[in-house]
Design goal:
Helix content: 40-55%
Number of strands: 4
Distance between the termini: 41 Å
Protein name: Dynein light chain
Radius of gyration: 14 Å
CATH topology: Protein Inhibitor Of Neuronal Nitric Oxide Synthase
GO biological process, one term: microtubule-based process
CATH superfamily: Protein Inhibitor Of Neuronal Nitric Oxide Synthase
Order of helices and strands: HEHHEEE
Largest sheet: 4 strands, antiparallel
Keywords: Coiled coil
Pfam families: Dynein_light
CATH class: Alpha Beta
Shape: globular
Number of helices: 3
């Protein structure tokens, strides 16, 4: 059973993560945005290299039931300090955001 102090600490952590995120573009639902940001923070915190953080984040998106809609396409993840992209994606399955405290940009999208 979760204590009230644990749930309060979790809510504060979520607030802090959202405060440090700048969403540039998103077609995801608000709940999915929050989860994506939390997963990205967790991935970057646990990884030394951006490619490892990307793999971790992709695994989280691939296994979370909330991210399973949108057809048979696969989730793609790009994490880094500077990049450009031109892509085709499934409608309602793209998010591009910056984690200001981690100095990283994150692009997630589901292919068609």
């Amino acid at each position: 059973m979760e204590s009230s102090s644990d749930s309060e600490a979790e809510r504060e952590a979520v607030k802090q993560d959202l405060k440090n995120a700048k969403i540039n573009h998103s077609d995801l639902t608000k709940d999915m945005e929050v989860k994506a940001i939390r997963y990205a923070v967790e991935a970057i915190s646990k990884s030394t290299l951006d490619k490892d953080a990307g793999s971790y984040l992709k695994q989280k998106l691939d296994t979370d039931p909330d991210f399973q809609g949108g057809g048979d396409g696969a989730w793609q993840v790009v994490i880094g300090r500077s990049f450009a992209a031109s892509l085709t994606y499934a409608t309602h399955y793209l998010m591009f955001f910056e984690l200001l405290s981690k100095r990283r940009s994150v692009l997630i999208f589901k292919t068609q």
